[in-house]
Amino acid sequence: MMKLKDSEYRFNPYAPGFFDNPYPFYDRLRENDPYHHSFMGTWILTRYDDIQEALVNPNLSSDLRNWAGFEKRYKDRESIPWFVTHSVLTVDPPHHKPLKNHLNKSFLESSLKKLNAQIPAIVKQKLEKLEKLGSFDFIPEFALAVPLETIYYVFGIEEADKPKVKKWSTDISKLIEPLPILANLEAADQSIQEFSQYLKEKILQTQLDQAEDEQSFLTSLFENPHSESFEKDEYILPNLILMFMAGHETTVNLIGNGIFALLNNPDQLKLLLENPELTSSAVEEMLRYDPPQQLAWRSALCDLQIGEHNFKKGDQLMLLLGSANKDPAYFSDPHKFDIKRMPNPHLSFGKGQHSCLGSWLARLQGKIAIREFVERFPDMEITPEGVRWFSNFSFRGLEKMPIVTNN
Predict the structure, then answer these.
(1) Peptide bond before residue 343 is cis, with ω within 30 degrees of 0
(2) Shortest CA distance to 231 belongs to which of 121, 99, 42?
(3) Coil, helix or strand for 311?
(4) Per-residue pLDDT reduced to its tens digit, 92-122
(5) How far is Cα 319 from Cα 61, in angstroms, rounded to an integer?
(6) Tell me, what DSSP letter sits at residue 278?
(7) What are phi and psi of 178, to 5 degrees?
(8) DSSP 3-state of 363
(9) For 30, what's the count of Cα atoms within 13 Å in the CB-facing half-sphere?
(10) In this structure, what are the phi and psi dihedrals at residue 224, rounded to the nearest 5 degrees?
(11) Would you say the pTM of this structure is higher than 0.90?
(12) Cis omega before residue 94 (within 30°)?
């Protein structure tokens, strides 16, 4: 296999054009340098087999404390180290499984039945508002509005508190980028402190106000002893912040990227309108074709081999999920958007113990929101010159997408 020289090609997620369409960059790496040592010091993996193996390998850690430079980056931060080392995303065994089980069970027991009724009501409300407009920016008005209102409902956020809670979440989400700038670190650190204090007060107030036969998501995390093998008070607050953030960041991009794909593939939009029973497979294809989360991180706990490459203890790996989903070794005609694609074993929610905790919620909201939107506005058109992608690498999504409904 020919390896590209740095002078010929160098992986740089901040290169011009990358945020608009990263997939040609991924293709070049996968075909020419599937174990690419980047300027960031990380090894970048792009092939499906290698990434799938890495996601389930017990000798690869998600704990950020194993990363070189962790202490230096966060040494002057009060709250970021606590947040990023107690998140279910970054906790390794033995704490990971009981923590994830506890969060998942509390969420499902307190919220699933309510959300099955609440999400369609939220979608209907947003659609009725949009129907009066005729043209609008799809991202803030629908793609973001639906999951954000859903997670507000789960957390019981009052109307007056929504702007500050959204700001805190936006600030903290920027920690996921590979090279966060100093200003973003400062804002995230402050927002973690403020959001944590807000949640403490919110939980106490909810415990006082709720009736004996009621159960809220916030209080169930402390009241249901699903596991005693981790310190709940220490772990629950950072994971509440994570679940609020991930509860809408992933879904807004699923809905936005999904509708964008349909509008750019009118044959598939027509197929979905004529066959609404394809909604589930359409959502899976949207997740594969342009995934909301583009990467996962791991660090080697010992010398090990992944695929054809030997890694050393301490090596840092960036797993490009978006590239794995376009690997022609696993997906025929991978750059084709095909809502009938079967099978579709994409890795957009990861795999193994660190697979996405809230994938069921993203899928549930995506199916309802996308089906109802295309049925309400079957003749919609996009305004291409108004489309703008966020300058994010980890989360891939649209910042603006003007739509004319033609109703």
Answers:
(1) yes
(2) 99
(3) strand
(4) 988 898 888 888 888 877 788 889 999 999 9
(5) 13
(6) G
(7) -60, -35
(8) helix
(9) 24
(10) -95, 110
(11) yes
(12) yes
